[in-house]
Amino acid sequence: MKRAFAVFAVGGVLLATACRAESATSPEALPTSATPPASSPSQGASVTPTPRVERRTVVQRRSIRYSTRRVTDPGLARGTTRVARHGVKGVLTLTYRVTFTDGRQTAKKLVRKVVTRAPVTRVVMVGTRVARRCDPNYSGCVPIASDVDCAGGGGNGPAYVSGTVRVIGSDIYDLDRDGDGIGCD
User: Fold this and answer.
1) Residues in a beta bridge with 101
2) Which of 7, 14, 63, 93 has its CA 20 to 30 A from that of 26?
3) Same domain for 150 and 95
4) What is residue 175's predicted lDDT score, i.e. its pLDDT?
5) What whole-number distance in Å separates Cα of residue 70 and Cα of residue 74?
6) Under a CB-based contact definition with an 8 Å cutoff, are residues 136 and 169 in contact?
7) Total structural domains in the chain?
């Protein structure tokens, strides 16, 4: 006698039973006492399988934008900017508990929210210095205008020079009247 095994599904559970085979010629031959139960799928009754539920931990990372701070700088000319420190994006780590039923996502719950790397603020220096425009023909600052006169003199301006200046180029405003190279003396 040979042994054969029969496998049946009852209520979503697989059952295996050992049977004695009466005939050695057919391994599939089962004794009449080992016939499948009436509720087996082979006789037309439907068996609903139990859903397969799986839980996973999912980690996502998102970037955090950095902010920009503007700081006035009297050492820079008005209207100019300079980046003193570059900004760096931060990182936010989100941990979720995700439930899948038969391969489809059915639930998602936020478990933890952590700032992994804080953003670094960008710093921009903004110039506030008013640039004085000086004529290159004089040492000391003689403003560039349609006419420049010595302060306290008899000239009518519109611009004035206080103190003495040295003429290093051509005396276009006629500030050195005596020709000694020093104007407004």
Assistant:
1) 53, 104
2) 14
3) no
4) 87
5) 13
6) yes
7) 3
